[in-house]
């Protein structure tokens, strides 16, 4: 029986992922370069400790010169924050939270981003008090696709992995949930809809596609 729902944050609750990529693309274009999406998609859902692709280094390689990384980092992040600040809660998220509460489920967040980033935006959109456990990159040694974030949330909640369902928009995040022994439902966004989600238990185009109670019944029936 599913007793807990654990949400990813970036790209699932708020579409921060498009802002991240597009702010990098704008920066690259200012130097007359392009950032191919196939390179970028490998990092979606990962924390900084798991990154294998370095967009700073790749830009320097294209230009064949060293750049002021601190200046680039500030310019790019400022632009990303401006874009994200205008982003609303994604469709269906509030419905799922309300329904989870009605069903008596525990509700958590597991994110590879920093706590300041996640909690700041959850506060901005008025959702911070809806989750009884929020675990972020600052709370663990390894982020997604390592299962530690999910296992940390489960430990705080006192829930066994087979009693929990993760909602993820990225393949790396979904892999973390499955490695933790949980059920996982993919809810891809425009940045991730072409990624491989063969390892998940179910896939939705949006949380508006199916109400939470129906989704849980489907997951439990096919377990």
Short description:
This protein is an alpha/beta fold and 223 residues long. The chain has nine helices and six strands, in the order E-H-H-H-H-H-E-H-E-H-E-H-E-E-H. It has helices at 16-30, 37-40, 55-63, 69-84, 93-102, 115-124, 148-157, 171-179, 212-222; strands spanning 4-7, 106-110, 133-135, 164-168, 183-186, 202-203.
Any overview of this molecule?
The chain is α/β, with parallel strands linked by helices. The chain folds into 2 domains: 4-15 and 89-222, Rossmann fold; 16-84. It has helices at 16-30, 37-40, 55-63, 69-84, 93-102, 115-124, 148-157, 171-179, 212-222, and strands at 4-7, 106-110, 133-135, 164-168, 183-186, 202-203. A 6-stranded parallel beta sheet has the order 3-2-1-4-5-6. Strand 2, helix 6 and strand 3 (133-135) form a beta-alpha-beta unit. Helix 1 crosses helix 4. The model has no long low-confidence stretch (mean pLDDT 94).
Describe the secondary structure blueprint for this structure.
Blueprint: E1 4-7, H1 16-30, H2 37-40, H3 55-63, H4 69-84, H5 93-102, E2 106-110, H6 115-124, E3 133-135, H7 148-157, E4 164-168, H8 171-179, E5 183-186, E6 202-203, H9 212-222
Parallel strand pairs: 1-2, 1-4, 2-3, 4-5, 5-6
Helix pairs in contact: 1-4
């Amino acid at each position: 029986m599913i007793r807990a729902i654990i949400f990813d944050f970036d790209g699932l609750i708020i579409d921060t992922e498009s802002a991240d990529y597009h702010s990098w693309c704008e920066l690259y274009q200012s130097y007359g370069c392009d950032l191919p999406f196939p390179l970028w998609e490998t990092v979606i859902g990962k924390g900084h400790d798991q990154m294998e692709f370095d967009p700073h280094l790749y830009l320097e390689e294209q230009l064949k010169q060293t750049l002021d990384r601190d200046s680039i980092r500030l310019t790019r992040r400022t632009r990303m924050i401006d874009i994200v600040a205008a982003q609303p809660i994604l469709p269906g998220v509030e419905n799922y939270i309300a329904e989870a509460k009605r069903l008596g489920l525990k509700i958590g967040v597991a994110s590879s981003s920093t706590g300041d980033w996640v909690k700041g935006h959850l506060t901005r959109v008025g959702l911070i008090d809806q989750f009884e456990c929020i675990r972020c990159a600052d709370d663990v040694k390894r982020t997604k696709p390592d299962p530690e974030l999910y296992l940390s949330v489960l430990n705080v909640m006192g829930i066994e992995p087979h009693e929990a369902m993760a909602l993820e928009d990225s393949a790396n995040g979904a892999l973390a949930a499955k490695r933790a022994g949980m059920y996982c439902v993919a809810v891809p966004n425009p940045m991730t809809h072409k990624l491989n989600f063969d390892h998940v238990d179910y896939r939705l185009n949006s949380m508006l596609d199916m109400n939470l109670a129906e989704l849980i019944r489907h997951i439990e029936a096919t377990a």
